[in-house]
Design brief:
This protein is mainly alpha-helical. Helices cover 82% and strands 0% of the residues. The chain has one domain. The longest helix is centred in the last third of the chain and has 21 residues. The radius of gyration is 15 Å and the shape is flat. The model has no long low-confidence stretch (mean pLDDT 90).
């Protein structure tokens, strides 16, 4: 993560994502989460929240993160 942040902060985006491919999925998710928290109101916020913070997304993240950790270390990525 530290190598990713260093490369990302210096504008080397492709190099940064080579250090941590999982962030290709997490960054858009975090952006959507930020939009939902900061800019949406009313019924739209309720619908977005049910998708972004719903049970399905939580289960997906719980499975995805440890799986990526194991696969990354086995394949030496």
């Amino acid at each position: 993560m530290q190598r990713f942040l260093h490369a990302f902060m210096h504008g080397h985006f492709i190099e940064a994502f080579h250090y941590n491919y999982l962030l290709l999925i997490l960054i858009p998710y975090l952006i959507l989460l930020g939009i939902e928290k900061l800019f949406l109101t009313g019924e739209t916020k309720v619908r977005w929240k049910s998708v972004i913070e719903g049970r399905t997304m939580a289960i997906a993240m719980i499975i995805l993160a440890p799986s990526w950790f194991i696969i990354r270390n086995i394949l030496n990525i």
